[in-house]
Each structure stands twice: as structure tokens, then as C-alpha cells.
Amino acid sequence: GDQTGPAKTGGEQWGSRIGVILAVAGSAVGLGNFLRFPGQAASNGGGAFLLPYFISLLVLGIPLCWAEWTMGRFGGLKGFNSAPGIFSAVCRSLKARYLAVPALLIPLVIYMYYVVIEAWCLAYAFKYLTGDLMLGDNPDAYGKFFGDFVGSGEDGAILGGTSSLIVFVGITFVINFVLIYRGVSKGIETFCRIAIPMMVVCSLLVLARVLTLPAEKVSEGLGFMWNPDFSKLADAKTWLAASGQIFFSLSVGFGVIINYASYLKKKDDVVLSGLTACGMNEFFEVCLGGLITLPAAFIFLGAAAGDQGTFGLGFTALPNVFAQMPGGQFFGFLWFFMLFLAAITSSLSMLQPVIAFFEEGFGMARPASVSLLGIITLAGSMFVIWFSAGLKALDTMDFWVGTVLIFILAMVQSVIYGWIFGVKRGVEESSHGASFKIPMVVHYMLKFVVPLYLGVIFVLFLYQAL
Ligand code: PHE
Predict the structure, then answer these.
(1) C-alpha triplet 379, 98, 422: angle, nearest 5°
(2) Mind listing the pLDDT tens digit for each residue in 94-117?
(3) What span is annotated as the signal peptide, if there is one (predicted)?
(4) Which domain holds residue 34?
(5) By CB distance 3.0 to 4.6 Å, which of 123, 258, 327, 431 could disulfide with 72?
(6) Is 258 touching ligand 1 by the criterion CB < 6 Å?
(7) CATH code at 197?
(8) Residue 166: enclosing H or E segment and its boundaries?
């Protein structure tokens, strides 16, 4: 056997096949699909963004996703659930666990700001229910409401503007940590099985409503967002943004899937499950995020929509859409409630890898690991709320952690899979229980093309930035 440290403590497993797929899809489908994707597309060439985006999906996203599913289940069967444990099992070397540091750091840091936006969604859903957000046909009013609420208004980022925000952040934290405390199958899986069907229903209702708005308005909005600017394709930043978006959206390159996959059984199908989760994510991203959210927003704000920050736009622009449609209060509620559900199923997947690490690495029991993580993340989120001067800090963090660090981890993972785990073991491990095999070319892509592709974009980007 492998000499790779202590045996696993948790021994948790997913309850059912559909449950795992929904949990992974739940991790993937989130604010990234509805807010980040349209924002990235709009500021990186509009329709032209789709070219590097789909190339990144095929070259990076799906191959790395399969690699994570395969290595995750492999590590899980050896008794490891945390990325450091899994890396050491895969590499047959204890030292390899240090390579997994980003796989803990990334989800942890992203959670700290992600959960704040999650709380905005809950607050907006609530404020639609109570009617507070029906401010009429007045774009400035929504901008002001948002600024006051998140504390980026006149007085800057201070507690004054954010007291009600703190309440919603508190509720959001409690929901997340109760579910995490209940565990992988009873907490995460059960919640995803309920939340995802609800999300589908809510978002289809909103879609139907938006598409039945006056036709010329809808096409004007789509034009704003999708008008291709091909000159952006010469900019390495566009390619970096496209692959960053693929990673963020699929939850690939975070150490998240590798952790979720470690709770699989040997006979579970990693190939089809991985592909299904990716497919669901793309449906939500391109069809729902790209065709409705932002196009609708651009109808009302036009080019000014670009200045709202990656995540802010959905909160300042979309309320205008709801203000002008019959039944807007109801649809506004549905929309933000749907976003909230989508966000929880994602934020849970950022917490679980760290919990697994506390339990496995430090031998902590569930109450201790959950409390410790709660304290760390709450401190981090308070920092985000109080000390971030407006929304710029969010975007800066999102860039460094959500794009650059993920790049590095993705590179590490492809090298581990292609060169240390090796194509032969990769083929063998991924085929167990699979209804079809990963195409051979994908294994070689992971070995040669993925690291090269990531490296080239990264170097070009640095070169252009300096
Ligand atoms: N994929 C999620 C989204 O699109 C975000 C996420 C990032 C989830 C990292 C888990 C880990 O919103």
C-alpha cells in the first residue's frame, strides 16, 4: 500500500448518483453564471468573447474537470477527502500535499466575498417580497438603493450603510454552516436535490417573462451585450478572462470537485457525471445568464452598464426590468430568490474542502472544524464588508484569486495528472464504472496542451501588463 499518512476520519459518502450530480452542478451553477459571465462577456469583446470562451471550455474546462473527478475518487478510495491528502495519494509522496495549498486557499478566500453577494441576493428577494424594491421607473433610484445598502454610497464603506446588510449576512452564514454541519449527504446533497429543481422552475419563469417583453427592446439589449468586438481577441487579457470564467463557472481548478469526487464509491461513473454537470452549467450560463440577465439590463442602462462592477450590475440594472414588467414584484422576488439558492449550493462547496482538511489534517471533530471555519470566514467577510472601499476591492480580489491563483492550481493539477499520475493510470482509473471512456486525446491534452495553453496565455498576459 501507499505510505501516505493518516487514514481518513470522516468516511462520508454521497447517497445517490443523481444526488452527486446535482451537488456538483449546484457547485458549478451560481453567481458566476448569472452575474459574472455576462459581465465578463460584456467587457471582453461581447459576442467575440464566445470564441475564447468555448475554446477554453473544450481545451481546459472539460479535460480538467474529468481529471479532478478521476483523481478525487482515486484519493477518496485511498481514504482521503482533502486536497492535500488526495495529492499525496496521487503522487505517492507526502511532500505533494504542499502543492495543494491553493486548493484550500482559493475556496476559503472566494467564500469570504461570495457569501456577501449571496446575502445581497437574499436581501433583494426579501425586499421584493415587502415591496421595498418597487421604486418605479427610475434607474438612479436603484443605483442609490444599492449603494446605500452595500455601503458604497456617499459615506463610503462604513457601517452606517450596512447595518441591515449585516443581518442578511448573518442569516446566510447560519444557513451555510447548518448545512455543512449536517454533512455531505444529509446537508449538501439533500439541499441540492431540492434547490436545483426550484432554480430551474424559477429561472424558466423569469426567462419566459423577459422574452415576452416588447421584441425591439429585447433585441436591442442583446445587441448591446453581444455586439462582437473582434479587436479584443488580440488582447491576452481576453483569453485569460475567458479561461478564468470557465474555471470559476465550472468550479474547476479550485480543489472543489476533487473534494466532492472523493466521496464517490468505486463503481460510480465519473465520466458521464462530470460531463452532465458541465452540460447543466453551460445551459444555465449561456442560455440563462447570457441571454436574459444582462441583455435585459443593457436595455435600461446601455453602455453605463459596464461601470457597475462585475457583480453589482445584476443588482442595479435588473430591478429596472422588473419595474417595467407586469407582475414585476413577483418576478423580482423569484429572480433574486433563485440567485440565492444558486449561490448557497456553490458556497457550500467552498466550505466542504476546508472542513475536510481540518478533520483529516488536524484530526478535528465536526463541531470544532465547523466552528473554526465559521470564525475564520466570518472575520474575512466582515473585512470585505467594512474595509473594502466600494466594489472595486471585490473586483480586485476576484481577479487575483478568482483568475490568477486558479490558473496556477489548474496548471499544477494538469501536470500532476499528466506526468505523475500518468496517462496509463488515468485511463484505468477513469474507466471504472464509466458508461463511456474519456477520449484518448483528452488524456494527452491534459499532459501537453493544457499546461502549455495555460502557460502561454499567462506569460503573454504578464508581458502585456508590464
Ligand atoms: N461555480 C460557482 C459559480 O459559478 C462559483 C464557485 C467557485 C463555486 C468556486 C465553487 C468553488 O458561481
Answers:
(1) 130
(2) 999 999 999 999 999 999 989 999
(3) none
(4) 17-465
(5) 258
(6) no
(7) 1.10.4160
(8) helix 163-182
